[in-house]
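## tool: complex_structure
## caller: assistant
## args:
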Amino acid sequence: MKDHNHILHNVDSDGIDRRGFLKCMAWAGTGVLWTVSGGVLVSKTLAEIAKAGASLPAARDLSFLQISDSHIGFSKEANKDVTETFRIALDRINAMPTPPSFLIHTGDITQLSKPEEFDTFDEVLKNCRTKDVFYVPGEHDVLNDGGKLYRERYLKSVGAKGSGWYSFNKNGVHFIGLVNVLELQAGGLGQLGDEQLQWLEADVKALGADTPIVVFAHIPLWTVYPQWGWGTSDSERALGYLKRFGSVTVLNGHIHQVLQKVEGNVTFHTAMSTAFPQPAPGTAPSPGPMKVPAEKLRSLLGLTSVQYKQGNTALAVVDSNLS
Amino acid sequence: MITFIKQNKKAVLLFILVVLNFCLAAWGNETTNGAAVVNHKNKIEIKDFAFNPPTITVKSGETITWINRDEEPHTIVSVEKQFKKSPALDTDQQYTVTAGAPGTYSYFCSVHPKMTGTIIVEK
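## result:
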């Protein structure tokens, strides 16, 4: 996988570009924050972590990969061949010296929830060396049937509850897949709903506070830009149940760009799409697909690699593009 | 016997009223592709994640047509479930409903719930 180990923009002649800075800071696990697009994000320092007894075995080193927003079936100006860019993303995974233990797909596999779009995705995915994939739906995957087809295809094997939420443990890290794209209310944002929140509360109850937690869902679980619906109305309640944990990593898709925020022990991160970029919050009349010159497209598409290193509090979240 | 006829008459009357009411309140619907020309006075264009115009006033029995001009799919869903939800409309696809009983109807896009609109139906 090609990674950004060279400096792209060296604005302050300090040898660190923005991406490099993000990468360094993600690795260092410090709670420093940067402003993105007119101060949408706010900075906070990472709090000291109180350790408590663990109910899971001590977490061991683990690396996995997040892939998002494939939009198979999309064929407009912003990217006329989304299947090809998805394939390139998989090539990058296959080229990694140490393959990730598994993939997490954070939604919008398809553009229009069509069975043939899901078929194409599944067919191309067969080329991936890493076979284990965990899924959560995006709104594009559940357009006409409330997610029935999606659940049958991608959530049966994990024993998902309700509209598709579930959890699992890997190497002592607790993973939680949430659904916030169904039964949305007029005028509102993404939504988890009572039933799912109650399940979440019960799901984490017995875990020790030093169990690293990874939450993944399609729409951001933090308010990125409510004017565009980029947020989840009841995410605060969900995060309330996770407050006592020393390390919480929240992985989302939906907005087709990398944004990160650290708040206390929680790191929020959104991934790039493999299909097309979307504008930065508030920089366009709408959040629709962003057209960029062909030669620039792949620099705005990408993957997110996540690593847990034993003894480190924060997980390392590193983005790499497809150029 | 007289009582029976009276009751029967009441039942018939009730039946007629129900049918009449149903005809007035019923919202018809259909989805078409953009190839069809939109030649319609009650036209709502979906562009930049918004319904335009956001509020439309129509007469009962008239049709209302939405056309999606975005590269993103949208839906038209009655908040109170008073008319049939549209399927996801891709670029240039249309959805038409026939306005039912007079009243004010709110609707939204279930994919992007920030998008809301209102239909006012007059007699």
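## assistant note: The interface with chain B takes residues 76-78, 111-113, 139-140, 143-144, 184-189, 226-229, 285-289 of chain A (CB under 8 Å). Residues 219 and 252 of chain A are 6 Å apart (CA to CA). Handing back to user.
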